[in-house]
Amino acid sequence: MNNNAKIIDGHAVSKLIYNDIDIKIKMLAKKNIIPGLAVIVVGNDPASKIYVKNKIIACQKYGIFSMKQEFSEDITENELLNFIEKLNINLKIHGILVQLPLPKHINSKKIIEAINPKKDVDGFSPSNIGRLVTNDPLFIPCTPYGILKILENQNIDFKSLEIVVIGTSNIVGKPIAMLMLNKGATVTLCNSKTKNLSLHTKNADIVIVATGKINTINGSMIKQGAIVVDVGINRNKEGKICGDVEFTSASQIASAITPVPGGVGPMTIAMLIYNTVRSAEIQQNLNN
Ligand SMILES: Nc1nc2c(c(=O)[nH]1)N[C@@H](CN(C=O)c1ccc(C(=O)N[C@@H](CCC(=O)O)C(=O)O)cc1)CN2
């Protein structure tokens, strides 16, 4: 039995992305362009506040202009839409993101659709998702993009690999399935109604788990030598952060596994900064 799965260090992979970002920012600076990101957060969700804080810190660290707008829980949909409209025409802002989840009285779909697709650095708008589906992406959603970069860093040739994605959210499950499909993998998408999850996961070369549920899979459900990517961020009974995968048993069977924390999470922020810089590059080319 292999109990030596390689633990994939998301911070180390993110450093490679930040090196790329540094080069791009210096090139833009030569043309007097400073990439700008606007982050909107509504309400008091503690996790959202931490993620937004970390996004702003990353902007500051890499010389990106950032604007954080906090709105109280009771903001109306129209007020939010009006604010986005102003950001859409603000020349200092190349990327706009609305931290999710939004309060229930606000229609997230409507809000995301209001963001100019050319500034939609989260890649969630119908136009950007459509471009991903047709393999002509403009902005790839940050978490799936981070997973792709992690896997590419393992020198994986996706062609003909069996990949199982568990979880069908619009922000992770569906876009990562599409990305993998575009890379030539054979992809199976499973959901909470999937009858015999093991039947699928045991056959997979790569299992990507994004359900938001602790212990969605364990070592007995994966193939020897599989690669396991854990997207979940949960708190266990002891209050410790953990993923969707039962790490101890899975790491005895897998050849490589992403930990939580320190796996996919840091890549989400790196790819957001990357998308923001790309957005500045694209807008600069359009204006010349
Ligand atoms: N507009 C968006 N909303 C949300 C997104 C998103 O991509 N765009 N994704 C998630 C939250 N998220 C970013 O916003 C995010 C989640 C987790 C991490 C991260 O670095 N996690 C760390 C652990 C963090 C901790 O200790 O609490 C890790 O895994 O190492 C970054 C970003 C939902 N909303």
Automatic annotation (TrEMBL):
Pfam families: THF_DHG_CYH, THF_DHG_CYH_C. Keywords: Amino-acid biosynthesis, Histidine biosynthesis, Hydrolase, Methionine biosynthesis, Multifunctional enzyme, NADP, One-carbon metabolism, Oxidoreductase, Purine biosynthesis. Transmembrane segments: none annotated. InterPro entries: Aminoacid_DH-like_N_sf (IPR046346), NAD(P)-bd_dom_sf (IPR036291), THF_DH/CycHdrlase (IPR000672), THF_DH/CycHdrlase_cat_dom (IPR020630), THF_DH/CycHdrlase_CS (IPR020867), THF_DH/CycHdrlase_NAD-bd_dom (IPR020631). It catalyses: (6R)-5,10-methylene-5,6,7,8-tetrahydrofolate + NADP(+) = (6R)-5,10-methenyltetrahydrofolate + NADPH; (6R)-5,10-methenyltetrahydrofolate + H2O = (6R)-10-formyltetrahydrofolate + H(+). One of its GO terms (molecular function) is methenyltetrahydrofolate cyclohydrolase activity. It comes from the Bacteria. One of its GO terms (cellular component) is cytosol. Catalyzes the oxidation of 5,10-methylenetetrahydrofolate to 5,10-methenyltetrahydrofolate and then the hydrolysis of 5,10-methenyltetrahydrofolate to 10-formyltetrahydrofolate. Homodimer. Belongs to the tetrahydrofolate dehydrogenase/cyclohydrolase family. HAMAP family: THF_DHG_CYH. This is Bifunctional protein FolD. It comes from Candidatus Kinetoplastidibacterium kentomonadis. The lineage of its organism: Bacteria, Pseudomonadati, Pseudomonadota, Betaproteobacteria, Candidatus Kinetoplastidibacterium.
